[in-house]
Amino acid sequence: MKILNYTMISLLAVSLISCKKEGNINEKGKDSLTAKKDSVVIPEVYKEYYGIYTGDFAGMQKMTDETDGSEYDTSIYKRISLKINRITKDSVYGQSIVDGNQRPFRGVFNESSKSFVLDEPGNDKTDGRFEVKLSGDSLTGKWNAFNKTSVKAPSKTLKLAKKEFVYNPNFMLDENSDLVDWSNPKEFTEKYTNEETGKTESYKTSKNRFASDAIFKLNASKQKLTEKDLKNLRKLDLEIIKNSVFARHGYSFKKETYRNFFEQTDWYIPVSNNVDNDLSPMEKENVALLNRFTKYAEDKYDSFGR
After folding, report:
1. Is the pTM value of this prediction over 0.85?
2. What tens digit of pLDDT does each residue of 250-282 get?
3. Which one has a higher pLDDT value, 64 or 282?
């Protein structure tokens, strides 16, 4: 009887082990089938249309006259980049980059009309729909905000050209560039003496800060900067020299001041809202040094007409 019990126990153990092994095999087989199914890649098409299309993003913005409170329309121009990353039979995937705001989009491509309809997610007040048509290496069309009241110019037109982004440490602002920061005028109180009455009077005037030609001589992507290089520079000089590093890497600037400077060039292509990891060790050291000097530097202001 004892022997029989041991025999039964042995048979039961073998049976359990066998079942366990079978269970593992079946589960593994199931996982393999799932993995195989999930690994099926949807074919990509029209790869020749992949790339970066950059150019003008224009619209009309309502403004208020400070003197009488009346409203009027003014044109606004920005530079935008649309990155087409992937096209399948049913979907188009990519990103829009403008004003330092990088938004994914998804849409469809119509081969017969060579046109895209591309929707941003819709969970940001600046999101909208792009409806653009392809002609050679150009994209033209319009953008409309999903929420018309959340943005200053809810409808804009696009005129974009396909460009290949290339980092080049030699890129600099052109020497004919406008060196005035038009985005941040500052009010000053000036005094003058009336020659007839001899009375001194005060008046307010608006002035803009401006850079010096030092921005054409110092390249923080190519040379190791020293304190001697920077100690007598204006604050705007330091800002431009530092942000030239980020512009070369395709950073999309939030601040209008910097956009206005770099959009004067033909090499600046905004491709990302974060390029920190792309900077070289020397560039990072130079940026840190420029930040130190910017804290204590002063600006130069003058009156300019436009």
Report:
1. no
2. 999 999 999 999 999 999 999 999 999 999 999
3. 282
CA-nearest of 101, 64, 53 to 273 is 101
Q: CA 105 to CA 82: how far, in whole Å?
A: 9
CA distance 168 to 162: 18
Q: Using N-to-C axis directions, what is the helix angle for 235-248 and 281-294, rounded to 10°?
A: 160
Q: From residue 31, give the alpha-carbon distance in Å to each of 21, 25, 41.
A: 15, 10, 18
Give me the pLDDT at residue 202, please.
85
Residues 93-127 have pLDDT tens digits of 999 999 989 999 999 999 999 999 999 999 999 99
DSSP 215-273: GGT--TTTS---HHHHTT--HHHHHHHHHHHHHHTTB--SSHHHHHHHTTSSS----BS
CA distance 189 to 205: 6
Q: Which helix (H) or strand (E) holds 86?
A: strand 71-87
All residues at 6 or more sequence positions from 12 whose CB lies less than 8 Å from its CB, including other chains: none
